[in-house]
Design brief:
Strand content: 25-35%
Number of helices: 5
Bound molecules: 2-oxoglutaric acid
CATH topology: Jelly Rolls
CATH class: Mainly Beta
Structural class: alpha+beta
CATH superfamily: q2cbj1_9rhob like domain
Length: 275
């Protein structure tokens, strides 16, 4: 038994590469966070979406609350140990009847993490049902290590580079990972997964929060930022990210722009390895 996950869930994560659903907060709290998201979008004058969906935990105080939520961190600690950095965060919005989709990929592609011990917690601000385009995964696919990807061009692919697995893979057994507002799923950095369009009348939004144990480093020459969210870091492989003190403040915007620029530069370097 871990702090949050049962022994069965921990064993399932090791065997299959994913666990869901796990409870983070109530539906009411999720609705409050969704309202904060919509207020933030009004404040910025722009909706969260492709090109504006990286690292919002550096811009908005309420997102920095979610990434430090004890229920999420307890579950992550059960999988990667007590010293944890937030390596990256991508917001994944799909509007009602949005054709947006995500091609089959592994999160590790372009991250350049060594060893590849990253776990993504996908935290739902709204219900993410099968109809709404929740994630679909290939159980056990994380055991195959890093696969080659190529870039595809589709305005509807939510992945920043449209990265897609290049070689045929076994799709005879897949599992959908529906989660309700306030719940989350966890998946391994090498787990092959995708998601389809939202066929419901409501918006579907979740945060894919990538956590790593502090001994993990990035192999890029670009030095990246990452936020220490639990425990201690004796390794110092990343520059510290600091909590936002004001929503979309001037300092917060400048820090966010720098962090995202470094992250994109690192991704660019890594495409030469896996792209
Ligand atoms: O939200 C989605 O539809 C896809 C999310 C995803 O690919 C991820 O979190 O790694």
């Amino acid at each position: 038994m871990g702090k949050k996950l049962s022994a069965v869930q921990i064993e399932q994560y090791e065997r299959e590469g994913f666990v869901f659903p796990v409870e983070a907060f109530s539906r009411q709290e999720a609705a409050r966070y969704r309202a904060r998201l919509e207020e933030s979008e009004a404040l910025v004058g722009r909706r969260i979406g492709k090109g504006f969906n990286f690292k919002p935990h550096l811009l908005f105080t309420w997102v920095s609350e979610i990434v430090r939520h004890p229920a999420v961190l307890d579950a992550v600690e059960d999988l990667v140990g007590p010293n944890i950095r937030l390596f990256h965060l991508t917001a994944w919005p799909k509007d009602a009847h949005d054709p947006a989709f995500v091609t089959w990929h592994q999160d590790a592609t372009y991250f350049g993490l060594e060893p590849p011990l990253q776990v993504t917690a996908w935290v739902a601000l709204t219900d993410a049902s099968v109809e709404a385009g929740c994630m679909e995964v290939i159980p056990g696919s994380h055991k195959g290590g890093q696969s080659h990807h190529h870039e595809t061009l589709s305005p509807h692919n939510l992945l920043s580079r449209g990265q897609t697995l290049s070689h045929p893979f076994d799709r005879s057994r897949t599992v959908f990972m529906p989660v309700r507002a306030g719940q989350f799923s966890l998946h391994h950095t090498h787990l092959v997964h995708s998601s389809g369009p939202n066929r419901t009348d409501d918006r579907r939004v979740g945060f894919g929060i990538s956590y790593i144990p502090t001994h993990v480093r990035c192999t890029s020459r670009t030095r990246l930022t990452a936020m220490l969210v639990r425990g201690r870091d004796e390794y110092r492989h990343f520059d510290d990210e600091r909590w936002p003190l004001a929503d979309y403040g001037e300092d917060e915007r400048a820090f966010h722009a720098e962090a995202v620029a470094r992250f994109r530069a690192s991704n660019e370097e890594q495409t030469r390895r896996y792209g």
